[in-house]
Amino acid sequence: MENKTTPTQHTEMPDLEVLFDLADLFKVFGDSTRLRIMVTISENEMSVLNIAETLNMEQSTISHQLRVLRQNKLVRVRRDGKQIYYSLDDDHVKKIIEMGLDHVLE
Amino acid sequence: MENKTTPTQHTEMPDLEVLFDLADLFKVFGDSTRLRIMVTISENEMSVLNIAETLNMEQSTISHQLRVLRQNKLVRVRRDGKQIYYSLDDDHVKKIIEMGLDHVLE
DNA sequence: TTAACATATGAACATTTATTCATATGTTCA
DNA sequence: TGAACATATGAATAAATGTTCATATGTTAA
User: Fold this and answer.
1) Is 50 exceeded by the pLDDT of residue A5?
2) pLDDT, position A3
3) Cβ contacts (< 8 Å) between A19 and chain B: which residues?
4) Which of A27, A93, A105, B24 is the most exposed place for a label (fewest CB within 10 A)?
5) Is the CB of A49 under 7 A from strand C?
6) DSSP string of A2-63?
C-alpha cells in the first residue's frame, strides 16, 4: 500500500520517444476486435479459426489483428500441425486490461 | 461443427458492450498528444496556454484534445478568471499510464 | 505428388481521427 | 462599454486504420 501524503513527490516526465511508444502500445488496446481477441485467448490458447468462430468474424480479420498483437509482443504463438495457437504473452497484458476495466466499470 | 465444449470457467468474459467501452478508453490513451498532456498535468494543474507552450503546440490542438479528455472524465477542470486549469482526474489515470510504461520500458 | 485445410498477406475501400485555420464564446479590467 | 486576453469550436484537410476479397504460403495426409 502506498502513502499518498508525500507532498512533493515528482515522477520524472518520460521523454518524448517513450511517450510515442506508449501511445503506440495503447493504440493496440484501443480496438475492440483486438481486445476481444485478447480476452478470448487470455485463459486458454486458441487457433486462429477457433478465435474467428468464437468472435464470429472473418479469419482474415483475425489474422490481420493477430499480426498487430504479435508485432507488439502481446501474444505468444505456437504451431501444432496445420494450426497455429495463440495465447496472451504474460500477465502484464491482462493487468493492463483489468486496470482499464476498473475505470470503465466504475 | 459448432459444437464447442464448455470452457473451464475462470474469469468471466466481459460482455461485448463493456469491451467496446474499454476500447474507447484505451483509444484516448493511444494518442501521443493526449498522453503528453496527461503527463504534463499529472503533478500540477495547468492552464491551456501553459500546456500548449510547454508542448510547443497550437492552443487549438490542445483545446481539442482536452475536450476528448474531458468527455472521458480523465481530467478535472477549474476556472480562475480568464484561465481554465486542467489536472488529472484521479490516480487511476496515472496508474494506467504507469502500467503501460512498465510494459514499454521493459 | 496432389488435395484439402489453416494461416498469412497485399490491395482496395470506407471510416475514423488529429491538426490547422478562422472565428465564436467567455472573462477581466480600463 | 470596449479592448485585450483565454479558451472553445466548426469546417476542411490529410493521414492512419480496420475490414473485406482474393490469393499466396505452409502443413498434413492420401
Assistant:
1) no
2) 46
3) 32, 35-36, 39
4) A105
5) yes
6) --TT-TT--PPPPPHHHHHHHHHHHHHHT-HHHHHHHHHTTTS-EEHHHHHHHHT--HHHHH
Å from A44 to nearest chain B CA? Answer: 9
Q: Mind listing the pLDDT tens digit for each residue in B51-100?
A: 999 999 999 999 999 999 999 999 999 999 999 999 999 888 999 999 99
Query: Is A7 within the bounds of a domain?
Result: no
Asked whether residue B9 is domain-assigned, the answer is no
Q: Could you say which residues 44-83 of protein chain A have a Cβ atom less than 7 A away from any atom in strand D?
A: 57-58, 60-61, 64-65, 68, 79, 81-82
Residue A12 lies inside a defined structural domain of this protein: no
The boundaries of the domain holding residue A73 are 17-105
Q: The domain that contains B31 carries what CATH number?
A: 1.10.10.10
Report CA A89 to chain centroid distance, whole Å. 9
Residue A1 lies in a domain: no
Number of CB pairs, chain A paired with chain B, less than 8 A apart: 115
